[in-house]
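Fold this sequence, please.
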Amino acid sequence: MKGLELAQQYYTAYGEAMLREQFPQVAPYVAAGLAGSGSECYGYDDETSRDHDFEPAFCLFLPGEDLVDRRAAFLLERAYAKLPKQFMGLERSPISPVGGSRHGAIRMQDFFLEKTGSPDGVLSTDQWFAVPEYGLLEATNGAVFADPYGQFSAIRERLRYFPEDVRRKKLAGHLLLMGQAGQYNYDRCLARGETAAAQLAVFEFVQSALHSIYLLNRAYMPYYKWCFRGLHDLPRLGGLAQELERLISSGNTTPEARQKAQTMEQICAAIAGEARAQGLTDLPGAEMEQQAYAVNDTIADPTIRNLHILHGV
């Protein structure tokens, strides 16, 4: 059973009644769900994940003190701590009665402030560029089991994805880095006999290709250890995962280098083709530096368009 399903079943079995019967005055303002850090919040958990933080647990996201005061929050946390310690053969981890866990009673503004730097999901253009994508993903991943007041879900909706001009600026920067690393620097490093530098160029290419694919899917790229796992689920260009994995796991002998160069060109062609399909460029070919500036030229806001092309990366 996946962690999200376990959390929802545990909430249905015990959390709903606890809120309804013990906290009728504040229950209408409390959102219940599971979101944030941890593979279970992404749906990526497996048997290996169960060595830590895998338990029957859920979050109670609380609005400001004008609706749920400190005493009510404290009592909610204590009531949560008293829920059954075992469920479906699994045991809950000990939880402090004063909070500090990834589960239990959590102030919404604290949760979103930690993930995005904003307590209410309102971000300036500078913040959209500065907040790590995995932080935005942790603020919007998982599932909401109940949100009668709607505030938690409304904030998540504000953070659902980048504004379009920010997406295009980020994409332009990563296309440029793909071209510099894969179509230019890789061969030059090998020509000098600098195989370590050549492999770093491959890593740079793959990293920017990953970012580009997520951007073209309008999906936040997760923390690095899950970016390939998430790639397999993407509807657009997710099939490039095997080629990208091969690039960073193979050597740089002459035959391998020749194959790598061909693979990088094929990946560039696929990404440029998807960008054209989305109307982000009308430039033919797969010369990524040219494609990068073509995408940048489509940005509507002149202030964002005129920022350095690598501003988004």
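Residues 3-158 form one domain. The mean pLDDT is 94.
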